[in-house]
Amino acid sequence: MHRRHDPADLLLRLVIGAGLLIASTALWWPQPAQAARLKDLAAVQGVRSNQLVGYGLVVGLDGTGDQTTQTPFTTQSLNAMLQQLGVTVPPGTSMQLRNVAAVLVTASLPPFAQPGQQIDVNVSSLGNAKSLRGGTLIATPLKGADGQIYGLAQGNLIVGGAGASAGGSKVQVNSLNAGRVPGGATVERAVATPLAQGDAIQLGLEADDYSTAREVARTINAKMGDGTAQALDGRRVQVRMPADTHARVGFLADIENLEIKLAAPSAKVVVNARTGSVVVNQAVTLGACAVAHGSLSVTINSQPVISQPGPLSGGRTVVTESADIAIKQQAGSLIQLPGGTQLTDVVKALNALGATPQELLAILQAIKAAGALNAELEVI
Question: Are residues 183 and 199 in the same domain?
Fold first, then answer.
């Protein structure tokens, strides 16, 4: 008997079949390669920030400055500053200052910074000041690694912490001994950059990778012409620059936005021994191995025992400690971990152990020593 199909039923079957076909295609269809901009992978060597440091004084504190009897360098610095301003302190004068603090001023001089520009500075206490809140930083020269002055810092501090004390009690939120002066330093000297020097520059990759270095050179040559870029090693790529120095900025602007196809990263397991965090990337694989995991616990209970003498015996009450020590070891089971080729297999195999993060650190190190962990193990 011939059965007549409903058109709506046929349409539903076609939709379900098409959905299953699309879902199955997603499993074997090649995924597009991951890409990133060149500016996110590399930087021009020699174009970097420079660290500046200086020593100065913060004044105007509300009785929370250094105790000069314990920090004599604060008094010496104040005397030197007053002499520069034409004020002479009689020799042997003991100044009891509570509103002055010696501080260390640090700043980062960005590349291409020109004289007159302003940069932020960080101020940190060197002595025993209780708080820098409400203080003002006096003019402090900022020097570089070569001993030259590159900036001059001065301004009112912004301290993010807060605190109060009374009657022997104290409450404090965040640190009160460090602050920041936004735009508190003026650049006095510029640092030369290698952009206008020579006929080529070198791009330094953020991480060593020969595949990425080759791909960077290939992408630049495809955009700017053959022979423009050449990979020197796993981190450096040499790029020929235009002869006209005024055209180099536009040239770098064009190549820094190029999309670079990234190769698969090297397998790595990063372990934080302080927090117990374990981070595994997608390239990590686990060889077949067997792990015996157990735990040993030691329990110590201490109870006071009071020995009371009889009435009118002339004895003294004696208190002794009675300690009960018990050692318990849980039976460790031998768990076989199959070889995993994907990150999910590695995670499932490690979760099967039922270990805590701290115990997982020792297990990973043991698996690595046995040669079953196909990854670099980095402990931070």
Answer: no
Q: Per the domain annotation, does 25 fall within a domain?
A: no
pLDDT-derived band at 272 (thresholds 50, 70, 90) equals confident
In this structure, the dihedral spanned by the alpha carbons of residues 85, 89, 95 and 99, taken in order and rounded to 10 degrees, is -10
At residue 83, the 3 state secondary structure works out as helix
Query: Helices (DSSP H) in the chain: which residue ranges?
Result: 7-28, 38-41, 72-84, 210-224, 248-255, 343-351, 357-369
Asked if residue 142 belongs to a domain, the reply is: yes
71 with 177, same domain: the answer is: yes
Tell me the pLDDT tens digit for each residue of 316-356: 777 776 666 565 655 555 666 666 656 566 666 666 666 67
Same domain (yes/no): 80, 179: yes
- Asked if residue 355 is part of any domain, the answer here is yes
User: What is the structure's pLDDT at 121?
Assistant: 96
Domain that holds residue 207: 194-261
Burial class (CB in 10 A: 0-12, 13-18, 19+), 154: middle
Using DSSP, state whether 337 is helix, strand or coil: strand
* Helix, strand, coil abundance in the chain, percent, nearest 5: 25, 35, 40
Region 234-246: mean pLDDT is 89
The pLDDT of residue 167 is: 61
Distance, in Å, from the CA atom of 169 to the CA atom of 129, rounded to the nearest integer, reads 18
Tell me: do 179 and 290 sit in the same domain: no
Domain co-membership, 275 together with 295: yes
Mean pLDDT to the nearest integer, 182-186: 95
148 and 224 belong to one structural domain = no
Q: What pLDDT, on a 0 to 100 scale, did the predictor assign at position 20?
A: 45
- What does the block give as tokens for 246? 């005024």
Tokens 């960005």: give the residue: 110
The span from the CA of 249 to the CA of 227, in Å, is: 19
